[in-house]
């Protein structure tokens, strides 16, 4: 019989119960017992709901109050010394590692977070050295397995595999030069042996061991470790299903299919083309093939008929006992349930499946593959066919004008009129001094601003009253910048709820959820917009605010937009057209906005692309294609202006060194880039590749309330000037100030301005 399985479930609760409980605990308003109880309620609700949908293999062990990688670090005693010896409970050590701790004489920063593959989820990076004392400090997977069992629910525990865990780790600060975490594998193995043996003793029928790095180029060098590791683990563990996701195995399939485990899971949402090769590779083995048919990364209803046809190939070749119908990855990247959405039209609602609806999909798929004649299954399949047909019809009748415009894009549209050197002369009309100071766009989003927005939503104030309020905020920000002495001003973005949502709400083609929260990290959840049809701009979006701001001052005002690639990467995209096409449509909408800003007298315009790096494909061979359309989209959105208009862009959240040549190809007149957390790294990219346009590497980290001293900023500027021409350097913080308070903002920016004055005198 074909079984159904779900690889993991959102751990935030249907109504964000976990966020509320965790934050209340941090604020001292909930005890550890109460927090544990709140978590238990959420786990119970999830397991019960998944079971009710008819799923055979229900995940456990994937729940966490912060991050699942961090859970493993705590279980394995991978706890950096700075978090030890403070007399904290394990729960508080866990949170201290996740978010830092500043209380009662303890002052430790958070561990580093990194994006989980190409998703917008961040995991806490484990720190490993020769000194790491691996031991099974607790077994969080076993605890959850037993917790479900006590509720009468048999689950399949999920654990992150040892090789992925170590490849995702970094060398701890104190490690010897050249230390590689993977070299600790022999010390980590006994811990996994113990963990898995305990699961077996507790009665687990099988275990899901995630090895997502198998879809990366980096895994190719690990074939030997894979073979020896799993040969050892299968001796003590329940039957192991190795789960891969977010991409294709490619050449790694060769050794993965030979591992002595019970099953292999592949992602057919991201890489359906790998099915045939995988079937061929496992045919002569006894491996069960778990097929990731229902997307764990997007929210579109699965075409069950198409999925069943695809899966039918595997059933035919391997027999139904060797096939599992599954979600492509954990469902943690999707919202919990459509049932909470009251504002979608019935047409829209019919397009989507969130996590719980996806559980029903895998169950139906398994039944269909088993040839079920059950009336409920037949009805579900018929209903799905109707929904899919309606959606296809909608796709066909979408916006023709937009499609024609995309088809008519020419290479000329991607090019500024003249090269940077000529534009730079024309831009002297902005009258910026040497070492111009500027900020990245947003100013503190105060409680008052959020309250005004909430009042507008609730209808407690009128649109006109809200606009007046925003104008006052803008005036405050403009006067503040004049007082501090900044050169290129911004309006502060007080009108924006979020840099992506704000544009999505004003463009055609987007749908928003009320409760479609997805975990980004820890207790921070986001509600990604959904792109449902062709995107266009009904009218100007930001022009009124930027021109109002410009009308208040004689200093130049910088217009502020979110770029096409970032809007795309932080939304749920359509699946009926390519990401490239969606990005081009967004770029055309933004291009019109850029030109309208210029017409309104805004001669510096910034188009932010903080997410350009995270959209990079996981496999090196796929990079060039992505970088070509991503960079072209940015160019399309900005190239329509005169030479004398200065285009800016901004990047943060990543290490940009590996795509540095593409950053140059954006041909923005000025870029600002996050650098303060790892300045030497970024500078080495300048050294390696060179950079010809203006640039402002961030001179301080805005993610912390700490005020940078003026000497510290001067030192940074001096270091940058070792490699960059004084004529090209801008001086700015490394990201927007929306999460900061006014006090530290003022003190920090005063030091920024002082450093610029010093630079002007020193490098005259
Ligand atoms: C995450 S990048 C943020 C850029 C935006 N302009 C801001 O200042 O907030
Ligand atoms: Zn930023």
TrEMBL record:
Record-level GO BP terms: L-methionine biosynthetic process; methylation
Keyword Manganese part of the UniProt annotation: no
Pfam families: Meth_synt_1 (PF08267), Meth_synt_2 (PF01717)
Active site: 703
GO MF, one example: zinc ion binding
Binding site for L-methionine: 440-442, 493, 608
The protein's Enzyme Commission number: 2.1.1.14
Record's cofactor remark: Binds 2 Zn(2+) ions per subunit.
Domain Cobalamin-independent methionine synthase MetE N-terminal: 4-312
Cofactor requirement: Zn(2+)
Binding-site positions, Zn(2+): 650, 652, 674, 735
Binding-site residues for L-homocysteine, renumbered to this chain: 440-442, 608
UniProt keyword DNA-binding, yes or no: no
Record key words, sorted: Amino-acid biosynthesis, Metal-binding, Methionine biosynthesis, Methyltransferase, Transferase, Zinc
Residues bound to 5-methyltetrahydropteroyltri-L-glutamate: 19, 120, 570
Residue ranges occupied by any Cobalamin-independent methionine synthase MetE C-terminal/archaeal domain in the UniProt entry: 435-757
Pathway in which the depicted protein is active: Amino-acid biosynthesis; L-methionine biosynthesis via de novo pathway; L-methionine from L-homocysteine (MetE route): step 1/1
Top EC class, one word: transferase
Similarity comment: Belongs to the vitamin-B12 independent methionine synthase family.
Function: Catalyzes the transfer of a methyl group from 5-methyltetrahydrofolate to homocysteine resulting in methionine formation.
Protein name per Swiss-Prot or TrEMBL: 5-methyltetrahydropteroyltriglutamate--homocysteine S-methyltransferase
